[in-house]
Amino acid sequence: MTRRDGDFPTRREALAMGLAGVGMVGMGAVVAASRGSDGDSSTGAASGTRTAAEWTEPAVLESSEGVLDLELTVAETTVAIAGATATMLTYNGTVPGPTLHVRPGDTLRVRLVNGLSEVTNLHTHGLAVSATGASDNPFRRVEPGESFDYLIDIPADHPHGVAWYHPHHHGHVADQVFGGLYGALVVDEDDWSDGAPRVVVVSDVTLSGGAVANVSAMERRMGRVGETLLTNGARAPQLPVAPGTTERLLLVNACTSRYLSLGGPSLTVRSVDIGGLARPVSTDSLVVPPGGRADLQVDAPASSTALVARAYARGAGMGMMGAPDSGTDATILTLVPDASAASPATPGDASAPVDLRDATVAREREITFTMGMGGMGGMSFLIDGREFDPERVDQSVRLGAVEDWTLVNATGMDHPFHLHVWPMQLIDSDEVEVRDVVDVPAGQRVRVRVAFDRFAGPTVYHCHILDHEDLGMMGVVEAS
Prior knowledge:
The protein has helices spanning 11-16, 173-178, 217-222, 466-470; strands spanning 60-62, 67-81, 84-91, 99-102, 107-114, 123-125, 147-153, 161-166, 183-187, 198-205, 207-208, 211-212, 228-231, 238-241, 246-253, 260-263, 267-272, 281-283, 286-288, 293-299, 305-310, 330-337, 363-373, 379-383, 395-397, 402-409, 415-419, 424-426, 434-435, 437-440, 445-451, 457-463, 474-479. The strands form 7 sheets. Strands 13-10-15-20-17-18 form a 6-stranded mixed beta sheet, with no helix packed on it. The radius of gyration is 21 Å and the shape is globular. By secondary structure, it is mainly β. Mean pLDDT is 88; it is low at 1-50. 5% of the residues lie in helices and 39% in strands.
């Protein structure tokens, strides 16, 4: 290769139990609280009191005549935070960055300008596109003060769904995402001028002294959880909804480690990740793992109703490390009946995923998450007993082949598994369910089927607890 810059529930049972993670136009202003419990929606900021944040969404940049051409400048920016200011990392000066709205067959041209003092790059998480050259290349380095022109061709048959973008240079991913570098990326054929869906980018952060707080070695090993939950850069905003209507929420979990265990109103899950469900599913609870997304519908309630991220246990920990912090209950948004709110547009049909259950399987593999002594702070994070090496190919696959991968978690922590480029179908499921982030609970295993149907070349797979990825829990897969 050339050098390059136990038992577990069925998927239906998991979804019904809220464990889908097991197997599931305006400028956004940053509004956050001081270092306190993010489960308390009545206190915060310096004054000890707070009013509900107004609903805001990131600016939307849409493709035109088959092309979305934009510049993304990465920089430290002073942003407003609950009557004070703090320095965060931003795309084009906002947290989150702008929402990118594209269609199947479009070309995405992004000039990434690096105004940081460290290397960065760009990953279009969820797009089934080439991972080589100037496309979605995780090995690309954009040095401080430099820029790079990305050219990403989206296939004409690309499924509809919610993706997102964020940095992906190994060793810097968790800090840069936690610092504010993330934005939504939506692929569909809908005309948003007739009424756009609600883009809901959920992230978390800890602030200290007017900046994003540093994290300890222990927090990195556990997978950091921010003390403040943000929705489109605001804390617990109120979303006005017209009575008798149904709102569509495109939710992105942009947290570095936090699982979003959704509760509150009854939800209709139209899809997960990119075109991941064959048919909508109704549920009272849903788990969206770090990096995961969900296309949701919710009926306007008769009274104010909060969509809540409940505390979620991420395993029992490992030896002296104890259990990873799952965060406290926190409000994502509150649906507020409002007769003056605009009625939402009727969404287009969700894409049906390709069903691989009858495909001929060329090979079976096991991919095992392990942890051991050694490495940073006396703890190593490994896949198949090895730390990430960008010059080593860990899995060689034949282009055009279908394979079964058994994802084995031999640790005491949950690990959400993300495979770039090629989506994964959950085999032990009564329904057709396809994801690009598959949660593997502590001590369990999950089987997925992957069609390596196009896009030759190397890319990566990794734990999407981003601290674990940076600490070595990543591998290289090359299709040829």
